[in-house]
Specification:
Length: 286
């Protein structure tokens, strides 16, 4: 495909999902943003748990693992988060930490058990805004006479260190589907339109076209059904849609902006490295 003028637009922004369309940008750049959003945008997650009592049927490690995978609401502007990511990657340990406490007891009445959820976690100190994204996530169940008490400590981290620090669940991109249609060959357009599982084809001005190219899933059912070879399905790598779905720790827009800033800062550092021939120690201090 020929090169196009660089364009950018937000296609969808609802809930935790952000879809942006980029035209004229190299696919390597889009993939870099996707990978950075998964692995380098910092969020808070529980990283250490100190149990003072546990008479439940679950091991300490099992409960600690569930606590670590809880998405926590993370505060911060993209610029601050981007710098925090570079600090973490350079080996620095960020001082910010949030402590939680929980004490839960099993039922004392006629009930056989009680469910302890993420909403039972109480932040200590002045960090009331740092809390589980979803308060109804079940952590464990307690029977009569059972008790669990612990303190949990959350810190900043990135997905490169552990999956619990990744702010996104899926982060994907797709190229824009295109139809290459040869009018000179025999064809049966009615069959082509009907065979499409997404119903995104129509016959218009003696040509098979998309009603919405982004509805196409590139299954190539229409191409396979075309015995004359008049229809070919391909894609335009110069137009890409990137979709980021946040876990809720950060807004999807903030994740995207932070990923952009991290990439820009790394490119600036690489440019300095090439121009000044920085030593390894100087690179880590940037």
């Amino acid at each position: 495909m020929g090169s196009k003028l660089e364009r950018f637009k937000i296609v969808q922004e609802s809930g935790n999902i952000l879809t942006v369309e980029l035209s004229g940008f190299p696919k390597e750049l889009v993939n870099a943003l996707r990978r950075i959003s998964m692995a380098e945008v910092p969020v808070m997650a529980i990283d250490e748990v100190l149990f003072t009592e546990n008479t439940s049927s679950l091991y300490n490690e099992y409960i600690a693992h569930r606590l670590g995978l809880l998405p926590l609401k993370t505060q911060g502007e993209p610029e601050t988060l981007a710098q925090a990511s570079l600090d973490i990657q350079s080996g620095s340990s960020l001082p910010e930490r949030v402590d939680f406490q929980l004490r839960a007891e099993g039922p004392s009445g006629s009930e056989k058990s009680t469910t302890v959820t993420a909403g039972n976690l109480k932040p200590m100190g002045d960090a009331a805004e740092i809390e589980p994204v979803y308060s109804d996530v079940p952590l464990f169940r307690l029977g009569r006479g059972q008790v669990v008490e612990f303190q949990a400590f959350a810190r900043y981290g990135i997905g490169k260190q552990h999956a619990k620090f990744s702010p996104v669940s899926p982060a994907t991109y797709t190229f824009k589907p295109v139809i290459i249609f040869d009018k000179s060959k025999d064809f049966n357009c009615e069959e082509h339109v009907l065979v499409c599982p997404k119903n995104c084809l129509e016959y218009k001005n003696q040509e098979l076209v998309f009603t919405d190219p982004w509805e196409c899933i590139l299954c190539k059912a229409c191409e396979k059904d075309c015995k004359s070879g008049a229809t070919k399905i391909s894609w335009d790598e110069s137009t890409v849609r990137l979709t980021i779905e946040s876990t809720g720790s950060l807004p999807a827009r903030v994740i995207f902006k932070t990923a952009l800033l991290i990439l820009m800062k790394k490119l600036e550092l690489a440019q300095k490295l090439l121009s000044r021939k920085l030593t390894v120690e100087e690179v880590h201090s940037q």
